Amino acid sequence: MPFIRESIITTLHANGEPHITPMGAHETSQGLMLAPFKPSATLNNLLRTGTATINYTDDVRIFAGCIIGQRDWPTVATEVIEGVRLAHCLAHTEVKVMQQDADDVRPKFYCQSVHEQTHAPFHGYNRAQFAVIELAILVSRLSMLPKQKIETEIEYLHIGLDKTAGEREFEAWDWLMQKVTAHLQAENPTT
Ligand SMILES: Cc1cc2nc3c(=O)[nH]c(=O)nc-3n(C[C@H](O)[C@H](O)[C@H](O)COP(=O)(O)O)c2cc1C
User: Fold this and answer.
1) At 157, is the secondary structure helix, strand, or coil?
2) Which of the residues 27, 165, 167, 176 could staple to 3 if both were Cys, CB 3.0 to 4.6 A apart?
3) What class, spelled out in words, does domain 4-118 have in CATH?
4) Ligand 1 site: residues with CB under 6 angstroms?
5) Any idea where the domains of the chain sit in the sequence?
6) What is the pLDDT of residues 79-137, one digit of tens each?
7) pTM of this prediction?
């Protein structure tokens, strides 16, 4: 199994506006691989521009925000590719697509790093950040999951959140839980 960096991918729309989305960057022997499920704005932008920025951040509000539709995070221009990176990230990698594997469900984009830069120190792992990222993935798949699995996972993730979260993690968790509550209510309006 490849090592996957859970990252924020920034690409450019045709009108030059940035598109910001959480996505895994898979480490391969040749470089980094992005695998967006169809349909996806990131996929369209990768096909058109052949470039992307992989942003590494410990601000999990960006993961949660994108999943609930809040995507207006500050960006600045990249150094080598024509694109943007998150203004507040720990580090970023600018990549060019070297090879594509077309697929009806999940095309693969094999990329080469053309520039990498560190902007701030990494201050260690945090269980609440893990919990928020897991909840963000769960929220992005709510319609595919049974109610019981949703509730069991949230109960487990809440342990790490309660023990280790700061303000950013609690805020991100609350945004995501609003989506979970709305989903469960829509599924079962009497509860
Ligand atoms: C931590 C995390 C990792 C994700 N990884 C992927 C991924 O590898 N591929 C994908 O298609 N979506 C992934 N998603 C879901 C996307 O962020 C989401 O579906 C988004 O809508 C992608 O579509 P877009 O390119 O139109 O923004 C991930 C979400 C999270 C929270």
Assistant:
1) helix
2) 27
3) mainly beta
4) 6, 21-24, 35-37, 40-42, 63, 67, 133, 136-137, 140
5) 4-118, 127-187
6) 999 999 999 999 999 999 999 999 999 999 999 999 999 999 999 999 999 999 999 99
7) 0.97
